[in-house]
Amino acid sequence: MRAISAIIIIVIGYATLTNGKHSIINSLESGNLELIKEAAHKCVPVEQEDAGKTIILRMDDVQAFAYADISKMIIDDVIKRQMKITLGVIPKNFSKDIIMSKYLEKNICNLELALHGWDHSYSAEEGVYEFEMIDAQDAKAKLEAGKEILEKISGKNTMTFIPPGNKISPELKKLLELEGIKYISGEYESGIYGMDATTFDFVEYKLVENELVLKNCDERFKKNMFCVVVLHPQDYLTDDKIDMEKYGQFLDLLDEFKKRGARALTFSDL
Ligand SMILES: [Zn+2]
Contact at 8 Å (CB) between 118 and 91? Predict the structure, then answer.
């Protein structure tokens, strides 16, 4: 809102200064439209206070040409509540999705782009995920290619890796650390940055009650620890369509965290 008012003032000021009788439309026509559009989308950082409770919203499976509407809706609603979010992005082909890439770029000051593997492949035969089955050389190449894609959008170093399926071999974990990855966020009890709560139960295949998510985080808060809450865009779909009842539960969860005075940071803010 503030950005829009500033733009209106600038536009009015410009029109008045250059030629009183020329309208705003004239200044728009004289090539300012692009500048104004750009300024209208300047990323405004959220404002949060530290009341001793911190969550990290970790949304996995953000990817090219899938779940765009629900992903954007989640990100918009998080930022609207003055919260930040870490996105686990599957980098393969992501730069080809111009619309999603531009959308993330516009909101980047409130987002962290984390690598979520390269293509999130899974071997059903062996029951292993991408970063459990590839060798070190392959992992290094995929990491570098993935970083390049994300960094083009974020303009920042990629510091976080979220293993697909939350699974990673110990050797590859070491390799990622050597390659400059500071935060590896895997499954429950997989280290300090691992998941502490999740909004979806993949065994029961249904949303987890908010009470349980909050209970897990309250336990973390009591120990003065941050709480990593894992979610996926597809958690809030039914038959590939946004399910407003399910989505309402997500908004309630965000509001409950706000009521507790929790702030939502990203791994790279820690
Ligand atoms: Zn995933």
Answer: yes
Give tens-digit pLDDT for 60-111.
999 999 999 999 999 999 999 999 999 999 999 999 999 999 999 999 999 9
Q: How far is the CA of 206 from the centre of ligand 1 (A)?
A: 16
Tokens of 81: 């509540």
CA distance 113 to 134: 23
* CB atoms near residue 202 (< 10 Å): 10
Q: How close is the Cα of 166 to the center of ligand 1, in Å?
A: 7
Task: Give the Å distance between the CA of 254 and the centre of ligand 1.
Answer: 21
Q: What angle do CA 192, 196, 200 make, to 5 degrees?
A: 145
What kind and span of H or E run contains 86? Answer: strand 85-89
Within 90-167, strands assigned E span 111-115, 122-123, 128-129, 160-161
Task: Tell me the CA–centroid distance for residue 119 and ligand 1, in Å.
Answer: 10
pLDDT digit string (tens) for 147-173?
Answer: 999 999 999 999 999 999 999 999 999
Centre of ligand 1 from the C-alpha of residue 165, in Å: 5
**Ligand 1 centroid – CA 53 distance (Å):** 26
Residue 237 burial (C-beta neighbours within 10 Å; 0-12, 13-18, 19+) = middle
Q: Which of 162, 156, 154 is nearest to 118 (CA)?
A: 162
CA of 60 to the centre of ligand 1 (A): 5
